[in-house]
Write a structure and sequence with these properties.
There is one protein chain. By secondary structure, the chain is α+β, with helices and mostly antiparallel strands. The chain folds into 2 domains: about 1-50, no CATH class; about 60-105, no CATH class. Helix content is about 40%, strand content about 10%. The strands form 2 sheets. A two-stranded antiparallel sheet has the order 1-2. A hairpin with a 5-residue loop joins strand 1 (about 30) and strand 2 (about 35-40). The longest helix has 15 residues, at about 60-70. The N and C termini lie far apart (about 55 Å).
């Protein structure tokens, strides 16, 4: 596509940069297997992912965040902490008891983080 856009007294890099920006922003630009680019009336994969992320229900996002945080911070040796509570509600946090645990929580303006 670039060979058709290049003009006299213009550098190729100008057009390469412009095409990179077009590929990043054009939701209906698609690439064929032979690296040919074309416009279609169907949104591309990037736009579909963006739409799903915008329209995803908050409870589903929170559930997935809990699952991932639980997996990341799962205590393998239990030397530092024995339990992990990912994104607990404030009233679910129990600071008394013999076991040490870690909580990964949403930041809140009501809580002063040290």
């Amino acid at each position: 596509m670039l060979e058709y856009l290049i003009a006299p007294n213009r550098t190729v890099t100008e057009f390469q940069d412009a095409f990179k920006a077009l590929k990043a922003d054009a939701w209906y630009l698609h690439r064929k297997e032979n690296d040919a680019w074309y416009f279609s009336n169907i949104e591309n994969l990037r736009k579909r992912i963006e739409n799903r992320a915008i329209n995803a229900p908050a409870p589903k996002i929170e559930q997935e965040m809990r699952r991932r945080l639980q997996g990341i911070f799962d205590p393998a040796t239990t030397l530092a902490y024995q339990n992990v509570h990912a994104l607990p509600k404030i009233d679910e946090i129990r600071l008394n008891g013999p076991r040490v645990w870690a909580a990964a929580a949403w930041p809140s303006p009501r809580i002063a983080w040290l």
